[in-house]
Write a structure and sequence with these properties.
heterodimer, A: mainly alpha, two-stranded antiparallel ribbon, 58% helix, B: four-stranded antiparallel sheet, 19 helices
Chain lengths: 312, 453
């Protein structure tokens, strides 16, 4: 891998470097990042900070677009809010710094391998997964003639090892989803032909619509809890780990969510002319009689905020 | 065709990781929750990454090495890397084993109670089974004194009489002291003495020589170890051995007639085995010696009681067969009409005499099916019942099979046994004996009428 180092320091001492990063701040951040241990100069760090700051607008959002120059304090707050050590290392690796790559391997080779093994549940598959990611991280992939390194998409908001784990998990899930669709036809158990659906009962139709409306109206966190618990079959402990809350809290939230849905359904049924007792009796119908796809309902997310642009 | 509900736009690894590490702003977190609520793929990614974050901690703990700790102590991450690198062959079985081992270690802390509970249950069952097995035959655990005095002869009788004529001990024996009152040492060792037959049974093939017949020096050591009570018992043992030897000279058939089984001959005592036993015993720990001493006491008592009879070999052979006699075992397992378990029984064919714990004697003529009490005709408390045989031993009988031998012998025995009734000798040539708690003996030929010996 070719070594690239960009020294943007200028003789004579300039207080404000191109891109608006304060030189004194760069010096501080260079020491804090410990990048000197793998031979990165302050100038190289300044280049990295400049790039990252511009890409993320120094955390100022729209203000930067209006031409505002971030102050030294704002810059310091922004950079210290990031995992600076990991960020500088990742960016140096993405730029092809050989020593940074060696340092990266020394730090993350084994954790990454173990994470891959844990994700796949197999040493062989885990090793393959980790090797594949290494190849990409090293920059063997090219697109449009340009060397592509997934580490370039790391922005330092979370830890680098967490980012690597998430990337591994993404690769594994995507691979599984692709290969899952390629099951041989011998193993495909064809479902019995559906019988002609009879005309749905009016009460069942009302009930199905009430449930659909109640589920669509649920908030994001409630929907996540319901989907994780009832669709994915996760345990309260796992859900609690993901949300950083105690499993008892997850249990309470789940019960509250189901109670809310029940209330909404009852209210909806009553609004359709059923009595309170009739509405409660309607909830006792066999769920198989309902023409409802709960998975589809729960996965019908409205958000399109996120775009998968990194690690691809 | 239904549309695919799965979202095609997903947050990148940076956002998912930031969500997992709670590095997102509130607004971004709400958006992420909204997306995760509807996206199974991203939920799976987050959960997998979360599991992977937990796994390294498990692996590091499971694969902990000193050099890793050393490197970590000096903050040398590069030095840690080779320590963490555990080369493994690529194979699905090993892969799974490795992963399962790591998971097992981790989850073991959560499931620690499961093996503990299983172990407790196993121990409980083992103890229960052991108690159930031991209890019927060792009721005298509750009364150690009585046990030592009563069951030891029985146990010797039951256990194939491993006491051949004592050659080595005969020359060194001293007159045995009287039975006297039981000594604390004997009391202490009573439970071990009761277990002695079991140990002796196990030791049939390759066992050390029976401790009852030890060389003089060894016996003295045992006496010293076990106190004055043990010394008296040891003297008694010597005397019993001498008496046994003399009696065997008088009443035992010639070697040509007597063809003992290998088990019996293997137990034959001689000077060599005695000295070996002495050497072994000499170097053993105190607890073990106490146990052995207790066995010695039990067997010595057996030898003593046995030697009082005229036909010790008869007793031996009968004891061997009695050990195999289901009637005796059945009787010992039974509860007598008094409501107590028998502490001493003796059987001849279907004819069984049993003494309960209160000293009452009961007679059964159908192998313990029905019992009738026998009127007390003796003084004191009966503690043991036994058979003083006067039968001429055939070779087969000496070999331990009562009534076996030539066809004529068997026919004769059968005839005698058919004559067994209570108007005279139940078994011609068979004399039953009762021993009371003062070692006084009463004899009977039918088990009903008893006269002092």
């Amino acid at each position: 891998m070719p070594s690239q180092s960009v020294d943007i320091t200028r003789p004579g001492g300039i207080s404000v470097l191109p891109g608006g990063v304060d030189a004194a701040l760069v010096e501080e951040l260079w020491r804090e990042s410990d990048s000197a241990s793998y031979g990165l100069s302050a100038g190289e760090v300044a280049g990295i900070l400049h790039r990252v700051g511009n890409l993320q607008g120094f955390g100022l959002g729209q203000e930067l677009a209006k031409g505002a120059i971030p102050s030294r304090q704002q810059q310091g707050t922004f950079f210290r809010g990031l995992k600076l050590v990991d960020l500088v290392l990742a960016q140096a690796c993405a730029q092809g710094n050989e020593k940074a790559w060696e340092h990266f391997l020394a730090l993350y080779q084994q954790p990454l391998l173990r994470a891959a093994i844990a994700i796949t549940g197999s040493v062989t598959l885990g090793s393959d997964l980790a090797d594949q990611l290494y190849a990409e991280l090293y920059g063997l992939t090219t697109r449009d003639g340009e060397r592509r390194c997934p580490l370039d998409s790391y922005r330092g908001r979370g830890s680098l090892i967490g980012w690597l784990r998430t990337t591994l998990a993404q690769r594994h899930v995507d691979h599984h989803r692709h290969t899952h669709r390629e099951e041989p036809i011998e193993e495909f158990d064809a479902p019995a032909p559906e019988t002609a659906p009879g005309k749905p009962d009016g009460e069942l139709t009302v009930l199905a619509k009430a449930i659909e409306g109640a589920l669509i109206a649920t908030r994001g966190e409630e929907r996540l809890l319901l989907a994780s618990y009832y669709l994915d079959g996760r345990t309260l402990f796992q859900i609690g780990q993901m949300l950083h809350v105690h499993e008892a809290t997850v249990s309470r939230k789940l019960r509250r969510a189901t109670d809310d849905i029940r209330k909404k359904v009852l209210k909806s049924l009553q609004s359709h002319g059923l009595s309170r007792r009739g509405a409660e009796e309607a909830l006792g119908v066999d769920p198989r009689d309902l023409d409802l796809n709960l998975k589809k309902l729960l996965q019908n997310s409205q958000t399109d905020t996120f775009q998968e642009k990194g690690a691809r | 065709m239904k549309s695919n509900p799965q979202l095609e736009v997903h947050p990148d690894a940076e956002s998912l990781n930031a969500f997992a590490e709670q590095a997102l702003s509130k607004h971004e977190r709400e958006l992420m929750l909204e997306h995760l609520g509807g996206c199974g793929r991203c939920r799976q990614v987050v959960y997998l990454a979360q599991e992977a974050a937990l796994a390294p901690a498990m692996n590091e703990a499971a694969e902990f090495r000193p050099e890793m700790n050393h490197a970590a102590a000096f903050g040398n991450a590069a030095a840690m890397a080779p320590a963490l690198a555990v080369p493994r062959a690529r194979g699905s079985d090993e892969d799974k084993t490795h992963v399962q081992r790591a998971r097992g270690w981790f989850w073991g802390w959560h499931l620690a109670w499961v093996p503990v509970a299983a172990l407790t249950a196993i121990v409980g069952v083992a103890v229960f089974v052991r108690v159930e097995r031991v209890e019927p035959g060792f009721e005298s655990d509750k009364k150690p004194l009585v046990v030592l005095r009563q069951s030891a002869p029985q146990q010797v009788a039951k256990n194939a009489e491993p006491l051949p004529p004592a050659k080595g001990a005969a020359g060194n024996v001293k007159p045995a002291a009287g039975p006297g009152t039981p000594k604390p040492a004997a009391l202490k060792a009573s439970s071990a003495a009761e277990r002695a037959p079991e140990g002796m049974r196990r030791a049939d093939a390759a066992a050390p020589a029976p401790p009852a017949i030890q060389a003089d020096g060894n016996r003295r050591l045992a006496s010293e170890r076990n106190g004055s009570g043990m010394e008296a018992e040891a003297r008694k043992q010597s005397f019993a051995a001498q008496t046994n030897a003399e009696l065997s000279k008088q009443s035992a058939p010639a070697p040509a007639e007597l063809t003992p089984q290998p088990a019996l001959s293997a137990r034959r005592f001689d000077e060599k085995s005695a000295s070996e036993t002495a050497d072994k015993t000499h170097g053993m720990a105190g607890a073990y010696e106490a146990s052995r001493g207790a066995q010695a006491v039990a067997v010595a008592r057996a030898a003593e009681l046995k030697s009082e009879s005229s036909g010790s070999f008869e007793v031996s052979v009968q004891g061997l067969s009695a050990a195999k006699n289901a009637g005796t075992r059945k009787a010992k397992m039974m509860v007598l009409p008094s409501g107590l378990r028998p502490i001493s029984t003796v059987s001849r064919r279907d004819y069984t005499l049993a003494i309960d714990m209160s000293g009452e004697l009961f007679l059964s003529q159908d192998s313990g099916g029905h019992w009738e009490p026998v009127a007390r005709q003796w003084s004191g408390r009966a503690v043991a019942v036994r058979i003083q045989g006067g039968l001429k031993l055939s070779g087969a009988a000496a070999a331990g099979t009562f009534g076996a031998g030539s066809a004529e012998d068997r026919a004769a025995n059968r005839g005698r046994s058919n004559d067994s009734n209570l108007d005279g000798a139940a078994f011609p040539g068979t004399i039953f004996e009762i021993v009371n708690d003062r070692d006084e003996v009463w004899i009977s030929v039918d088990g009903k009428s008893w006269t002092a010996k």
